[in-house]
Amino acid sequence: MTRLRTWLTSSDLAGIAVLALVIVVVLPLSLDIFRLNLVGKYLSYAFVAVGLVMLWGYGGILSLGQGVFFGLGGYAMAMFLKLEASDPESTKIQSTPGIPDFMDWNQLTQLPIWWEPFRHLPVALIAMLVVPAILAFIVGFAMFKRRVGGVYFAIITQAVALVLTVLIIGQQGYTGGVNGITDLKTMLGWDIRNDSAKYILYFATCALLIGAIFLCRWVQKTKLGTLLLAMRDKEDRVRFSGYDVANFKVFVFCLAAMLCGLGGALFVLQVGFMSASFVGIVPSIEMVIYAAVGGRMSLVGAVYGALLVNFGKTFFSESFPQLWLFLMAALFIGVVMAFPNGLAGLYNDYVKPRLLRKREPHSKPPEEQKPLPAASAHPPPVGWNPSVPRPRTDAKGVGPAAA
Amino acid sequence: MTAAEITNIVMMQGFAGLSLFSVLLLMGLGLAIIFGQMGVINMAHGEFMTIGAYTIFLCSSLTQSYAPGFMPYYFFFAIIAAFILAFAFGWLAEWALIRHLYRRPLDTLLATWGLSLGMQQAFRSTFGAKEVSPTVPDWLLGSWMPHEGLDIPINGMFVMGLTLLVTGGVFLMLYRSRWGLRVRATVANRTMANAIGINTRKTDRMTFAIGCGIAGVAGAAFTTIGSTGPTSGSLYIVDAFLVVTFGGAASLLGTVASAFGIAQTQSVSEFFMTGSMAKVLTLLLIISILMIRPQGLFAAKVRR
User: What is the domain extent for residue B167?
Assistant: First the structure.
């Protein structure tokens, strides 16, 4: 327990407990199953946002290709479910029974070899985590070893997102094309479409999300987390201290990718289909805004960010479709210009001091009195603070041609 | 297949490649100034192109209803108007948004993405969600047939000519004008440039606005090839960034070379496979080359 206390301060625990209370108790009690299913969908995006807090807030690496990993995890799960849904019995009207319907429509007569392993759930579950991690490793290793960072990394990950989208849409016979993989019914015979299954999946998502937050919190509190922060602010000093900066970056990129994959798989289970529209450039950038709204330094904030932005999206695109994009634009610009630390920053600046002042006469919790670790302290870290001038040459990141 | 037919196919294929090359180069030029020289990631670049395209559309409908006799000539004036309008919006965007974010490149990216979303919705509210295309003057239509079986579209040649003109203009401005000197001085060493009396803030604003203006010209040129919708700018943005990054960010010559390379790769591979696979192949090639050589084709020879 003492070891637990060292990496989990009471304010962390309180934050996570409040979040758990909201998503496990308050929301299920106050929403019907349709809305709750939507929340479950948003929570699967929250995995991406949590990953981005690690990658972007802590590591200082902005990836515009998180949709790729989300999509890979989602497709891994969707392929398994699709194969189960297209057994020879229920697809006997097709010209080739036993293969997914879109393959039949595209005149395929046989299941492609790389689909075969996805008949087994363990393979799909492993692929959902490992495939994103491998891709992240390849991209990250190649780029970080050559000290590419910042803007260049963002552009290249965006290009990767474009490649995958074009590939998925172009290879209709193998991937379902624009429509994606639809009509998913059961998982190992368990119908995922009825209400009880939706409840179970929702709570499973909550549990996994809170687990993911704990995992990331643990990483943040270890030496690795401190190094990540140090790298973000002064990469060269960390390198000169003898650390191999690239390896840490690759690790955090893979971690974020795996979280995305998990989120994607949970998304498929709850929504019942997967398509290229969750992979491309636009969704990938939207995922960044979840983390930005919630606060790029706050794991719990990222979940709220994902929930809020998606609530807003659903609400406005239902009622005022005209306004939604303007609002989204305002959100992007406002968060960047006025609230670089998002909701969590607002909480730390305005709400927390008041809470502390009220509590002061009664008891003094030692954790909150001593200066917080750099991670959650409110003066924003150097890199993001507009009032601290940095040399202009930094503006090009570590990328090439900072001439 | 006779030898003449093969020559025709090769010629037309080559022209398709050149045509794609001029499209890519025209897209990349504005960005080469904004991103390559200033280091600002302007995700709204495509929307500045759309401004240019809609300007042409407006000019064409205005000319058609008020001065039909002027139709054959309006296009030149419309292109100038497209430049001016995009320039003005660029000036405004720099003043309102970009200048606060020079020290935070990744945040610029997000803010300009927001700007692009807002602009897209503004286009949709003003011009409608449907794609529009201006009435192009008659002399831009049709194709040129030097001999039997070989036809070369005139609009493609027009875009090519315009690209040549704009590229030449950018080269002249960057390397032969006072403004170009100031830009290059600011890029090379901001503090020193400031110290010797260059107003770097003014230079920044001017540079950004000129980059946007060139984007407007690019958008104007594209109306001769395809129609314009509120989101058509976003189709170009990744390509444009890849052209500039692949060429080596600070090098204008690199931008030209990379646009040429990318266009030829894509149009040649399109001959052998479907369009989407050709695109995938080209992008993968660019990404892998960038992974091996992150500084791009033409890197500035500076010790980092």
Answer: 18-129+153-234
